[in-house]
Design a protein that fits this description.
The chain is of the alpha/beta class. It has one domain (about 5-295): TIM Barrel, CATH 3.20.20.100. It contains eleven helices and twelve strands. The strands form three sheets. Strands 3-4-5-8-9-10-11-12 form an eight-stranded parallel sheet. Strand 3, helix 1 and strand 4 form a beta-alpha-beta unit. Helix 1 crosses helix 2 (about 60-70) and helix 3 (about 100-115) packs parallel to helix 5 (about 135-145). The longest helix has 17 residues, at about 235-250.
């Protein structure tokens, strides 16, 4: 495993993390504590130290799985990132909760669920600019940083072209940006990444496998089960993406290299990107994801590399 500085936060994070939206039950599978424990144990074995979750992956369900695991492990070995701003009701059914007092309540619920006294990276979760421009919210969060409940603040931008919130990151005390970035969606390269580099912001690339389309497992015409979020994607859009994936596999992926591994390494070669946070459903996927850190695509002289 390789490690990089998460921007001005100074946190040393593995270049591959564990995304945990799937633990909330919206990716076609319900998890048990035993399965989550096995995934996180394997992640630690291969050098991963970054877990990304959110309050609305289930009703704090993902956080609870993680918290139960952390309660039997060394908390200080992990960088735990979670998010705020939404309340989960049912699969694909959420409401917005952005008032300062509501977010404070969410924070306390996340700390309880995660069974921890502090969150390493607490992220504004895909909110509009109107919700973002709330001085009371950021003042409250600053106080929580001072109180030790939060180590660092971040922004998970809803649109991968949202340079407004990215440009405001330093002003609101955020040290990292989370953004959709993958071989099928390179929009952040135009505006978001230059802003991040200018401000020394860490970058977490979410959906690095393009919702699994870049895993290499699916062909045009693939059908997803009802409780899989991909079942909600337009069929024509899905088929177009999978057609493009086949072209990428033929023209860009070296022979003998696993496509998912290549897709993660492709993200990591950009100088703005600190870490990728792919989801995983089992231990085998954890190992495969982690192996992307060793591909030649990953530059040893990356500007954020931990020496």
């Amino acid at each position: 495993m390789k490690y990089r500085k998460l921007g001005k936060s100074g946190l040393d994070v593995s270049v591959v993390g564990v995304g945990t939206w799937q633990f909330g039950g919206e990716w076609g599978m319900d998890f048990s504590q035993k399965e989550v424990d096995a995934i996180l144990t394997k992640a630690k074995e291969v050098g991963i130290n970054l877990i990304d979750t959110a309050e609305c992956y289930g009703d704090h369900l993902s956080e609870k799985f993680i918290g139960n695991y952390l309660s039997n492990d060394k908390r200080e070995d992990w960088i735990v990132a979670t998010k705020f701003g939404h309340h989960f009701h049912n699969n694909f059914d959420r409401t917005n909760h952005w008032a300062a007092e509501e977010v404070l309540s969410q924070l306390d619920a996340s700390l309880t669920s995660l069974k921890t006294d502090y969150i390493d990276l607490y992220q504004f979760h895909s909110g509009s600019d109107d919700y973002f421009n709330n001085d009371d919210l950021w003042t409250m969060l600053d106080k929580q940083v001072a109180a030790g409940k939060i180590r660092h603040l971040g922004i998970s931008i809803g649109s991968n072209e949202n340079v407004y919130q990215t440009d405001k990151a330093t002003e609101v005390g955020a040290s990292a940006i989370q953004v959709v970035y993958n071989r099928l969606d390179k929009k952040p390269e135009k505006k978001v990444f230059p802003s991040c580099e200018k401000q020394d912001l860490g970058v977490l690339a979410r959906v690095p496998l393009a919702s699994g389309y870049l895993s290499g497992k699916y062909k045009p015409g693939a059908v997803f089960v009802e409780n899989d979020v991909r079942n909600r994607h337009e069929k024509a859009e899905v088929d177009e993406k999978l057609k493009l994936v086949e072209e990428i596999r033929s023209n860009e992926v070296p022979e003998g290299v696993n496509m998912a591994q290549w897709a993660l390494a492709w993200c990591l070669q950009h100088p703005a990107v600190t870490s990728v946070i792919p989801g995983c459903k089992n231990e085998e996927q954890v190992v495969l994801n982690a192996s992307a850190a060793q591909l030649d695509l990953v530059k040893e002289d990356h500007p954020q590399a931990v020496k």
